[in-house]
Amino acid sequence: MALYWRDDAARAEAERIADAAIGAIGFCCAARFPRGVVLTEAATSVVAMADGAGVVIGELFARGSARRIDRLDTAAARAIAADSAVLINDYWGEYVALLASRDDPQVLRDPSGACACYTLGDQGVAVIMSDVAIATTLGLIDGAINWLVLAQWLAHPGIRTEATCLVRVDEILPGTAWSFAAESRFRRTVWTPWSFAAPDRQFADRKEAVDALRKTALLATKACAAQSTSALLEMSGGLDSSIVAACLRNADVPITCVSLWAPDPGADERRYAQAVADHIKAPIHFVRLAAEDVDLAAISPIRKPRPVDHPLKRAADLALEREGLDRNVDSFFSGSGGDFVLGYLTSSAPAADALLARGPGVAFWKAVADVAALHDCSVWKVAALAARKAKRRGAGGTSAERPFLSDAVRARDAPPHPWLDAPRLHWPGKREQIDSLIRCQGIREERDRRRIAPLRMPMLTQPMVEACLRVPSWMAVTGGRNRAVARDAFADDLPSKILQRRTKGNFTAFNAALFARHRGALREMLLDGRLTAQGLLDRSALAAYFSTDRPLADTAYTAVLDLAAAELWTHGWR
Fold it and tell me: Which residues, in sequence order, are CB contacts of 89 under 8 Å at separation 6+?
C-alpha cells in the first residue's frame, strides 16, 4: 500500500491512514518520500532506488538476464526519475514502481500485470494498493458496486479497463504510469504490445524465431524459479505446461507435478501429464475433480473488484492450494497464458497476415495450406476468408455472444483499452493475439492459491510476451500445427506424445454436470438475484432455459455458471 498526498494539508490524513494500516493489517514502513509513504508486509521484496528516488515493490531483473536486481544505483535511479520508461526498457520483472519526486510522484506497473495495482483518491490523498480488501478494512471505501461497469464487464468479459466494478476503485493497467502531481491524475501508456507486433519488428527467419523463443522461455522460467527450492507445477498435459516443465528441469529446480482430472474423456489428460513427468523425471500426483464435490454455496468468491471467479476455477484452485500445503511448496508454477502468447489462433488470420506481408505469392499459399490443414477445411475457403480479413483489417474483433443478458447490456460497446488502439496498417493475426493477451491479464487474480506461495507464470512475463509478439502468425501454424514455433523450440525437450498432440483438454462435461446438479439453486439465484433486479439479465430467457426438460444439447449452461459466479460476487459487496 502506498499513499501520496497532494499538499501539506492532506499529509495528516495520509499519516492517519498509514498508522491505521500498520495497526490493522500488520504492514511495516518500507519507504518514506517527501510527499508519500510506502507500506508492505515484512516478507515483501523491495528494491530501493539510490538517493531516495523511489522503490520497486516486487522482483526486478536486468533485461536479457535472469540476474535479480537488489538495488538501483544513482545513475539508474536518475535515469528512471527522468523517464519512467527506462525501467521498462532496461529491466523486467513482476513489480509496481513507486517514484518519489516531490513535483511528479508516479506509479508504474510492469507490463505483465503480475502485481495487482488499484487506486482511489480522497481529500488530496491518493491511495494505491494491491488488494482492495485493505481499503474496506480501513473504511476507505464502502464496497458499493458500480452497476454500469459491471454490465459492461458481463457484456465484454476479460477486457479490463481503469474502471472496476466497485465505486471509486480504479486499476492502474499493466505497462501504464500514473502521475499524482496535479488535481487530475495523468496517465501514460509506457509499454504497448504494438511496439513488438509491428510488421518491421517481426522475425524474418524462422530459425531465429525458434531460437529466440526457446532462449527467452528458459531465461524467464529460470528467473521466476531463482528463489524456489520446492515448486508445484500445475501439469495439464498440454503444450504450455509441458514447456514450463522442460524449462524448470533445465533450471534444476525440484518440482512436483499435480494434474487435475475429471471422469470424462475431455477432462482426463493423465496419460499426457504422466508422459511429461516421466520425461523430466519428476513425481506427479493426480487429483480427481467431481461435480458432486463442488458445493456452490460453500465456495466463497474471491473478494476482488471484478467478478473473476468461476465454480470450476475455484474448485481447481482450492485443490491445488491443498496440494501445495500438503507438500510445503514455496512456489506454484503454471503454463497459463501460453495459448494466448504462443499464437494459438483459430481463424484465417495467419494467412491474412502472410497476404499483407508477402502478397499473393508462394508464402501466402503456403500459409493458406497450413491453416487449411490445421482446421481440416479447403484451401479455397481459407483463401477467401483470409482475403476478406486482410481487406477489413481496420475492424476490431467481435465479442462472443453472451446469452441471458438483457438487451440493454448486450448492446453496450466494448470499453476502451489502450492496447486495442491498433496502428492503421496492423496485421489481423496480431490484433487477435493482442486481444487475447488483454483478456488473460486477470488470470493471476483468479488464483487465490497465491496466499499460500507465489504463483509463477513464465509464459506471461514481459520477455516472453515480447518475443512471441515478434513471431509472424503464419510461422505459428507451419505444417498445420498450432503453436508450431514453440513445438520446434522444445522438440528435444518433450516426449513425442506432446509434440504431436493436436487435441486440447476441456471440462465441458464437468460444467454440464455441475449445472445439472445445482440446477434448482442456480435458477433461484439468478431469477431472483441482484443481477436480475438491476436489469442486467433477461429473466424470461433464463426462466425458459431452466424450465426445459430436454437434455443439454448446447453450452449455454456455461454462461449460466458464469452469471452465477457474478451473482455470488455481488453478495460480497454493497
Answer: 63
Q: Could you report the per-residue pLDDT of 351-407, keeping only the tens digit for each?
A: 999 999 999 999 999 999 999 999 999 999 999 999 999 998 755 555 567 899 999
Burial degree of 85 (CB within 10 A; 0-12, 13-18, 19+): middle
How does residue 310 score in pLDDT terms, banded at 50, 70 and 90?
confident
Three-class SS state of 6: coil
Cell of 116: 495487482
Distance CA 225, CA 66 (A): 10
C-alpha torsion sign, points 408, 409, 412, 415? positive
Does the pLDDT of residue 4 top 70, yes or no?
A: yes
Q: Note whether 210 and 492 are within 8 A (CB).
A: no
Coil, helix or strand at residue 280? helix
Give the chain's largest Cα–Cα span.
71
Quote the pLDDT of residue 396. 55
Strand partners, 145: 166
One-letter amino acid identity for 319? A
Range of weakest confidence among 170-184, 387-401, 543-557? 387-401
The predicted-structure confidence for 238-292, as pLDDT tens digits, reads as follows: 999 999 999 999 998 899 999 999 988 788 999 999 999 999 999 999 999 988 8
Q: Check: CB of residue 116 under 8 Å from CB of residue 131.
A: yes
Give the H/E segment covering residue 197.
helix 194-197
What is the b/e burial string over 65-83, where b = at least 16 CB atoms within 10 angstroms of the residue's CB?
ebeebeebeeebbebbbee
Cα dist from 366 to 359, 381, 388, 393, 480, whole Å: 12, 14, 18, 21, 10
Cell numbers found for residue 95: 513489480
Q: Give the CA distances from residue 4 to residues 83, 116, 287, 469, in Å, rounded to whole numbers and listed in that order.
A: 19, 18, 46, 36
Please provide the DSSP assignment of 33-102 as one string: ETTEEEEE-TTS-EEEEGGGTEEEEEEEEETT--PBP-EE-HHHHHHHHH-THHHHHHEEEEEEEEE--S
In sequence order, the 6+-apart residues with CB closer than 8 A to the CB of 207 are: none
**Predicted confidence (pLDDT) at residue 300 exceeds the cutoff of 80:** no
Contact criterion met (CB below 8 Å) for 570 and 531: yes
Segment holding 552, helix H or strand E: none
Radius of gyration of the chain (CA): 24
Q: How many CB atoms lie within 10 A of CB 150?
A: 24
CB atoms within 10 A of CB 117: 23
d(CA 2, CA 14): 10
Do residues 5 and 125 lie in contact, with contact meaning Cβ atoms separated by under 8 Å? Answer: yes
pLDDT of residue 170 exceeding 90, the answer is: yes
